[in-house]
């Protein structure tokens, strides 16, 4: 690769100011662009600023300033920034085209051949060391032809000097030879340092390339150590760079003699053991053929395994071909039983390394030694002499006299590597189920995952009327029998005092699990003779993460426990309770922070001393920034349970998505055999169709605008089928921005009748709510959104505003609800469609929240879920664990 291409790749990517003056102007431009961007696109400021520069600089270089031209420029800026701009703001942006003088558009760079190096008006260059740039503005005459020719000639001369081109001067050849020697010496020192520090193994692709370049330079030396210009060839350098670390490590194969058989069984789980053994032996025979090249070997393996239509098989074949000798010699080494047999295998690898550079590289990475043919022949004679009955002392003397390489310490870098939990897709290979479809559009790519299969009804369902006592049946209004998940946990929840951890999909019915645990505690406080419940000694606490969920739980259990004469109260940031109110309440629904304050005062005084049952909903928040609060609550509860002895406190953990359930079960002191229940997506009441959309770049449009366009198409498709949509975003400001963009587009296309029927019941209810007729005074943005069938929901709204929006959405008056994660954690507001907008900012713990949001679509009225994935450039699909 020439220096020209390297400069093109590294310097022509983004605009870089080349003077302090233009740098200050560019910083001001970044601030102005950020000020006018919508919420949620902070990562794209530089990219959008460069597109703004392209528009304003092309306007500054033009000669026309008519009203039509200015209008076109304003429309381009508005489409790019996805917002309306006033005339003053437009003129302010156009001024940057005159102030930033060292920006060159891509088309001009390609035309001038300057490889992306930009020059300022003063002629300052971005790279001074190479003296390699295009013509400056001050030296170019009217047509620019003479200076361009001189510049091209200068570039060719510099490139020839650096890359070894022809030269007519003997002095120049000598100078070039000195520079090459210095470069070779630097590479040699770097290589020695890498082997000393890393145990002779190239850790990265860049180190492997550096090793290949160093080996090629060393091969070009003559007997005297001088570099021979005629022997050095760029093709040899490319061939040396082709040697890379095997994808299947030698250590992985050398410790498993059944490696090939296990790999074939994983690829073909339907085959029996004999068939897999025969296939593994045929694969090994093909891999061991030294005369076959990689292309022929890949063809043979594909024919043998039949992987023409199986992507997993083809990927494994590619890895096996690239790591063929690592697999062959690893299996031979694994089958050895004595040290002598292992020496024979390594000697065979060393002999093979003399003819194959890949085997040589493999041998060096394993042993840390260079391949020395003379030393190898000498040691071979020593071993033959010893096998024939020679003097072992003489053999050891001769072996010690042989020149030895320093055995370098090898380090297992993979074992030391930190598994970055924020990017699990870098370490986990994603597989899609059968029936997955991929659709390509102008604005995005879309992958449709089929719904998961439902669980088989093998176990009988528990009837409510006969399985619960008569006084407990009213706590299950409208429920004839428990579903499959609830039936499995019935015995543990209602007939024992075991601590429990239940991990089940959203909508599977965990509320009834909590209800059964409450009925167990109520039965202990109930007088069987009189049927009276001792409310003063009965204290139950339900910990929910969000205020919206707390209010939902209070409404649900107030209705269900009212026939038993029990009181339910809320303890959150919106509602406080006095000590007397707590004493008169049997079920306290609190946020983690509020209950932490109550238990922190004393574990043996007040309400906390009477606690019988503690239910923690969404217990996977242990991995959240609020996790320490939940841990403190559990630790104090455990301490109180130890102090009580027999009459302890029962802990119930509920979670919709929990990948590390065993760790959480151990933390809650749950018996894994009796109290741990984990259910997969087959227990979801409604099958879920998931669509992953990867947003593409559209020239002249901000990615936020493209994302809103795709979201509008999905929303319109849903409301045309008279279905509701929930759109989850990542900030409070983005809720209003997204709702405003959707509302504006609906008005432009005149499709409002799909969202609200004029003079219908929903339209009247929305008008009454927006006017404050229901008693709640709403903010101005809600008053504008509600009449058109749109709503927003986040923690910044007042309690009355949140209740109003939730009620209108539950009554199906609001068709589109744009909200933050406040509605993701268990709030019973299901929708037919769920859109997660902009999941690029999500982390591995945030994947749990994403699954919660998708789960909002799991209801009898809901059947589909969509995820909108946002990424730079072409779409890239990422895997969310859990």
UniProtKB/TrEMBL annotation:
Protein name: ATP-dependent_RNA_helicase
Origin species: Leishmania braziliensis MHOM/BR/75/M2904
One GO cellular component term: nucleus
Limits of the Helicase C-terminal domain: 711-882
Residues in Helicase ATP-binding domain copies: 491-676
Bias (Low complexity): 136-148
Region (Disordered): 130-156, 163-182
Keywords on record: ATP-binding, Helicase, Hydrolase, Nucleotide-binding
């Amino acid at each position: 690769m020439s220096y020209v291409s390297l400069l093109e790749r590294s310097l022509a990517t983004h605009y870089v100011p080349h003077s302090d003056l233009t740098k200050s102007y560019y910083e001001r431009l970044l601030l102005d662009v950020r000020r006018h961007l919508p919420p949620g696109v902070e990562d794209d400021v530089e990219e959008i600023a460069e597109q703004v520069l392209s528009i304003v600089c092309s306007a500054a270089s033009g000669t026309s300033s008519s009203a039509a031209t200015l209008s076109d420029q304003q429309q381009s800026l508005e489409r790019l920034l996805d917002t309306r701009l006033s005339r003053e703001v437009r003129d302010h942006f156009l001024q940057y085209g005159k102030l930033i003088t060292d920006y060159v558009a891509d088309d001009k760079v390609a035309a001038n051949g300057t490889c992306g190096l930009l020059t300022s008006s003063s002629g300052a260059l971005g790279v001074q060391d190479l003296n390699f740039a295009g013509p400056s503005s001050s030296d170019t005459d009217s047509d620019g032809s003479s200076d361009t020719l001189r510049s091209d000639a200068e570039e060719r001369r510099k490139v020839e000097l650096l890359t070894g081109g022809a030269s007519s001067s003997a002095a120049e050849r000598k100078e070039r030879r000195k520079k090459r020697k210095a470069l070779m010496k630097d590479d040699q020192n770097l290589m020695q340092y890498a082997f000393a520090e890393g145990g002779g193994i190239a850790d990265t692709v860049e180190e492997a390339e550096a090793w290949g370049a160093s080996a090629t330079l060393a091969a070009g030396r003559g007997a005297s150590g001088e570099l021979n210009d005629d022997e050095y060839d760029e093709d040899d350098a490319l061939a040396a760079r082709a040697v890379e670390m095997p994808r299947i490590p030698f250590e992985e194969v050398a410790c498993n003699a059944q490696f090939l058989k296990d790999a074939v069984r994983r690829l073909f789980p339907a085959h029996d053991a004999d068939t897999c053994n025969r296939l593994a032996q045929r694969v090994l025979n093909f891999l061991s053929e030294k005369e076959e090249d990689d292309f022929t070997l890949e063809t043979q393996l594909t024919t043998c395994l039949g992987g023409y239509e199986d992507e997993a098989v083809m990927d494994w074949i590619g890895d096996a071909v690239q790591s063929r000798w690592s697999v062959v010699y690893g299996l031979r080494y694994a089958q050895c039983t004595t040290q002598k047999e292992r020496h024979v295998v390594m000697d065979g690898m060393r002999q093979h390394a003399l003819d194959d550079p890949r085997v040589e590289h493999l041998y060096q990475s394993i042993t840390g030694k260079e391949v020395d043919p003379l030393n190898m022949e000498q040691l071979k004679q020593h071993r033959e002499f010893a096998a024939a009955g020679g003097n072992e002392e003489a053999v050891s003397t001769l072996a010690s006299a042989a020149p030895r390489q320093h055995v370098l310490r090898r380090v297992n870098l993979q074992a030391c590597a930190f598994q970055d939990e924020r990017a699990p897709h870098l370490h986990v290979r994603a597989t899609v189920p059968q029936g997955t479809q991929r659709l390509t559009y102008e604005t995005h790519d879309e992958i449709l995952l089929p719904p998961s299969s439902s669980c088989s009804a093998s176990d009988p369902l528990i009837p409510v009327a006969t399985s619960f006592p008569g006084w407990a049946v009213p706590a299950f209004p409208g429920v004839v029998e428990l579903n499959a998940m609830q039936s499995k946990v019935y015995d543990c929840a209602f007939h024992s005092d075991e601590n429990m951890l239940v991990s089940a999909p959203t909508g599977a019915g965990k509320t009834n699990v909590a209800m059964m645990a409450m009925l167990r505690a109520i039965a202990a406080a109930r007088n069987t003779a009189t049927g009276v419940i001792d409310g003063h000694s009965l204290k139950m606490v339900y910990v929910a993460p969000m205020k919206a969920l707390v209010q939902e739980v209070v409404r649900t259990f107030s209705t269900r426990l009212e026939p038993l004469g029990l009181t339910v109260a809320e303890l959150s940031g919106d509602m406080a309770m006095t000590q007397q109110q707590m004493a008169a309440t049997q079920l306290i629904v609190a946020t983690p922070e509020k209950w932490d304050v109550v238990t922190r005062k004393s574990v043996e005084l007040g309400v906390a001393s009477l606690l019988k049952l503690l239910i923690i909903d969404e217990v996977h928040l242990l991995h959240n920034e609020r996790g320490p609060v939940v841990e403190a609550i559990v630790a104090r509860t455990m301490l109180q349970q130890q102090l009580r002895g027999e009459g302890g406190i029962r802990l119930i953990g509920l979670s919709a998505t929990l990948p590390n359930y065993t760790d959480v079960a151990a933390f809650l002191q749950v018996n894994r055999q009796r109290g741990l229940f984990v259910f997969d997506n087959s227990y979801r009441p409604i099958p879920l169709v998931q669509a992953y959309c990867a947003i593409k770049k559209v020239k002249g449009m901000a990615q936020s605008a493209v994302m809103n366009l795709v979201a509008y198409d999905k929303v319109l498709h849903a409301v045309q089928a008279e279905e509701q949509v929930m759109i989850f975003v990542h900030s409070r400001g983005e809720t209003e921005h997204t709702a405003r963009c959707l509302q504006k587009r609906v008005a432009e296309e005149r499709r409002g009748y799909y969202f609200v029927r004029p003079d219908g019941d929903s339209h009247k209810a929305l008008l009454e709510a927006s006017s404050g007729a229901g008693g709640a005074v709403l903010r101005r943005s809600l008053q504008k959104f509600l009449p058109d069938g749109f709503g927003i929901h986040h923690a910044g709204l007042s309690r009355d505003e949140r209740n109003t929006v939730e009620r209108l959405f539950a009554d199906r008056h609001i068709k589109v609800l744009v909200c933050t994660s406040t509605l993701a954690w268990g709030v019973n507001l299901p929708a037919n469609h769920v859109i997660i907008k902009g999941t690029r900012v999500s982390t591995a713990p945030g994947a749990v929240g994403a699954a919660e949001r998708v789960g909002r679509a799991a209801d009898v009225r809901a059947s589909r879920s969509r995820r909108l994935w946002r990424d730079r450039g072409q779409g890239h699909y990422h895997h969310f664990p859990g």
